[in-house]
Structures are given as C-alpha cells and as structure tokens.
Amino acid sequence: MSMLQQLEQAEHQALSELRDVRDLEALRAWKSTYLGKSGPIAEVSRSLGRLSPEERPRVGQRINAVKQQLQQAYDELEQRLIAAARARELEQDRVDVSLPGRPVVAGRLHLLTQTQREIERIFGQMGFTVWESREVELDEYNFGLLNFPPDHPARDLQDTFFVATPPDAPPVVLRTHTSPGQIHAMRRFAPEPVRVILPGKCYRNEQVTVRSEMQFSQVEGLAVGQNITMADLKGTLAAFAQQMFGAEAAIRFRPSYFPFTEPSVEVDVRCFLCGGQGCRLCKGSGWLEILGAGMVHPTVLRNGGYDPAQFSGFAFGMGIERMAMLKYGIDDIRWFLSGDLRFLEQF
C-alpha cells in the first residue's frame, strides 16, 4: 500500500470515528490516536525520506492537507462539546432566586473585650474618661516615677520583660502594669483635676498556670482633685461592684501595700455564689478579691505635676480576666487566649 493510500485510509477512519465522539475525554483520546506522535499521520511523515525527490513534495502536501482537515474537524467538535457541557452545567446548577438565603453567621466580641467595655461603661457613667497609654515603657515610668527605687524589693514581685536598647540608652520594658499611665495622664492634665481609666495589655515573665499568664489585661483608674478622700474611693468602687456583679454586691477593704499608693488596700466583693456563707468559689471565706487600690502617694502626685499640699487622689487597678472569671465562673485564665471556639461561643 502506497503512502497516499495509507493517508486516505487514515483520514477516512479518523473522520468516521470522530462522528461517534460524544464527550471531551473521548475527543482528546481521538486526537492522541490520529494526530499524536504515534499516530498513522506521523508514521507516514517519518517515511518521507524513503521516497524519490519527485514524489516527496506531492506526498508532503497531502500529509499537510490531511492534518489540517483533521485538526479543523477536531476544533469544531471541541467547541460544540464545550458549549454543550456548559449548557448542561447551567441547567443542572440553576438557582431559584425565590428561595430564602442562607443565614450568615455573625461574629462576636471576645469575652475580654465585652468585659472591658462593660467596665468602661460603668466608670463612664461616673465621669471617668477612657485614656490609652503605651505598652512599651521606659523603666522610669514603669517603676521609678511610681515610687519604686532601683533596689526596691517590690520590683521583684514583677518579673519584667526588658527591651533590647543601646548601652547608653535608658532601660525600656514591656509594661508590667497599667499604672505608668497614671504619670502620663497627670502630666497631660495637671494642674487641672483628672478622672480617667486606662485599660490595656500588660506583660510579665511568669509561668503560665490556671491563674497566671505572661500577657494579661488590666484597667487602671485615677482620680485627682482637691479634697478627694478614701471615702470617695470606697463609694466609687462600691458603685462599680453593684453594677458589675449585681445590686446586692458588697465590698470590703483590707490593708495592703503598693509603692505608688498610701494607704493601700485590697478590695474584696462578697461572694455572689454563696452570699458570704462560704463555698468552693470563695474557698470558704465568703469574699472574692477583685482589685487593689489606695490613695495616690504624695511622691507620685508630685511626679505627675500636682502639689500634694493642694491635691489628693485615689487610684485602683483590676484585672479584666479576673473580672470575667469571677462574673462567669471561669476557672482557668488560659481559656481567654486559647482561641478555642467552644469556649468563646458561650459568651
């Protein structure tokens, strides 16, 4: 059989089989069979070298003509099959616009954010302004101006993260409490009276346990003016406790010590689970510790720009996690930053 006869036979067979192709997968298999490198057209092309110089051009032209005809037939059928497949897909995926839409799951505020906003709302009603201060502080603001001398033992109570600085630069720390904000606020408003709360993150190099985290949140409170007394502090915190924990909440002061307040107190709220009778939550005492507070130390007032002879003030600091744990009965501080949706979706 001559090469021209082989080409005619291959062309006829290819076009005959192409009429039976019904999908794209079969079409691509057809192309591989007849137009691929192992197909009959390619086999004839590889045999051109055996022909005489006179026959070679005629057979070569016929090879090109067959290739073009089969490729054109392939392209036309491919377009028809693609269009048919698209039409079937649109028919099957038809959307009924009259059906109700799927509900979108709304996000929610983190429990710490909810608790912080509740604290801000309560103190906002009492005339306190929310004021933010920096998380990276000079050692002077975090300790020195708050009446912590360099060798003061109270520094050992807060294992501090120090930020790398040049040898001749003053020490820089991640703040260990929100109290440095007191100095910034007083220097901003002095000699006018000031009443602010300062929420924010704090950092201490502590072992992570059910009661302690390396990162936690606090709210600092500060009021400075003339004739402010411990009675004002107690009234303010009593009003806060009643709005935060319920109208029946009662507080008590216990003597304590903080370098930046004098006198200093720890503040407890009557256990709202047992009503002061003693239970597992309050460990039988009938009281739950909620915050530390006191009258602003004269040295701190002076460092903030106020004359202690004319001005007095009170300050307090509370942990936001502590407030949420008490209010909602949470027994492990690690839940707050765990990212566990099973915990977060409860609030």
Read across the widest sheet, the strand sequence of neighbours is 1-5-6-10-9-8-7
Number of domains: 2
Gyration radius over CA? 40 Å
- Give unreliable regions as ranges: none
Helix content: 25-40%
Largest sheet: 7 strands, mixed
Derived from helix and strand composition plus strand pairing, the structural class reads alpha+beta
Task: Name the CATH architecture of the largest domain.
Answer: 2-Layer Sandwich
Under CATH at level 1, the class of the largest domain stands as Alpha Beta
Written description of the protein model:
- With 347 residues, the chain is α+β, with helices and mostly antiparallel strands.
- It folds into two domains: 90 residues; 234 residues, BirA Bifunctional Protein, domain 2.
- Helix content is 39%, strand content 19%.
- The strands form two sheets. The protein has a seven-stranded mixed β-sheet.
- β3 and β4 form a beta hairpin.
- α5 crosses α10.
- It is elongated and about 120 Å long.
- The termini are far apart.
List the helices and strands and how they pair.
Blueprint: H1 3-18, H2 24-35, H3 40-46, H4 56-92, H5 111-125, E1 129-130, E2 136-138, H6 139-142, E3 162-163, E4 172-174, H7 180-189, E5 194-203, E6 215-225, H8 230-245, E7 251-258, E8 261-270, E9 287-296, H9 298-304, E10 312-319, H10 320-328, H11 341-344
Parallel strand pairs: 1-5
Antiparallel strand pairs: 2-4, 3-4, 5-6, 6-10, 7-8, 8-9, 9-10
Helix pairs in contact: 1-4, 2-4, 5-10, 7-9
